[in-house]
Design brief:
About 50% of the residues lie in helices and about 15% in strands. With about 220 residues, the protein is an alpha+beta fold. It has two domains: about 60 residues; about 120 residues, Alpha-Beta Plaits (2-Layer Sandwich), CATH 3.30.70.1130. It has a four-stranded antiparallel β-sheet, with helices on one face. Strands 2-3 form a two-stranded antiparallel sheet. Strand 4 and strand 5 form a beta hairpin. Helix 2 runs antiparallel to helix 6 and helix 4 crosses helix 5. The protein is elongated.
């Protein structure tokens, strides 16, 4: 099937091609705006630096390349530490919560920096900020105790978000509309494959493997 033939088919079933994407998009939009609650995300950043091999130059303590390398590894260790079940239980207990199952906790670290970003997502904007800050504090205390780290500094505390971070309702609606369009095209092509009607001389020649040698005109009813 050529592109021109496909466009012809779509034009013949234009109602289906237009209605199905609209229905899918409207249905998804209705679900997103009525059934999916707002989500809020708070983020805090912490900074890890080891100074086991630091030197003093003119009375000022400096950081060596070894320190930087070790700190980068620590950032990756913290990324795993924040996922620790015991750490999360202690954080929840300190906040008077049963657990942190209602929150999505994500950690972003980089091998080129010593900064670790902890994000907490939940339904209540104030609670996500509290959880993020308490979690960062728990990480620092645990790291000092078990990782031979002198201190973990919080670069920026999590603030109460003023706008929801999700769900991405517009994106979901757009994806549903595109899915409806693809489904409409697939249905049109499928219906055309089921249609065995011979529409022109070319199809007859291709199907029968013989040339067309004549035509019989159709009598139109009502002509005298």
């Amino acid at each position: 099937m050529t592109l021109l033939e496909l466009l012809t088919l779509l034009r013949q079933r234009l109602v289906l091609v237009l209605v199905l994407p609209i229905v899918c998009a409207l249905g998804t939009a209705a679900y997103c705006w009525t059934k999916m609650p707002n989500e809020y995300t708070a983020e805090t950043s912490i900074y890890a630096l080891t100074k086991s091999e630091s030197k003093e130059v003119d009375g000022i303590e400096t950081v060596t390349a070894t320190d930087l390398s070790a700190s980068q590894m620590l950032a990756n260790d913290f990324a795993e530490l924040v996922k620790n079940e015991q750490l999360q239980e202690n954080t929840a207990e300190a906040l008077g919560l049963e657990d942190l199952s209602d929150y999505k906790i994500s950690v972003v670290s980089s091998t080129t920096t010593r900064v670790l970003k902890v994000s907490v997502t939940g339904a209540d904007p104030e609670s996500v900020a509290l959880v993020a800050n308490k979690l960062a504090s728990s990480i620092g205390k645990t790291a000092v105790r078990i990782m031979n780290v002198k201190a973990v500094n919080v670069i920026s505390k999590a603030k109460t978000p003023t706008e929801p971070s999700g769900p991405r309702r517009v994106m979901y609606t757009a994806v549903a509309g595109m899915a409806g369009l693809f489904a409409a095209v697939a249905i049109v092509v499928f219906l055309d494959m089921l249609d065995t009607t011979i529409r022109n001389d070319e199809e007859a020649t291709e199907l029968l493997g013989a040339p067309v040698i004549g035509r019989f005109p159709l009598d139109k009813v009502g002509r005298g």
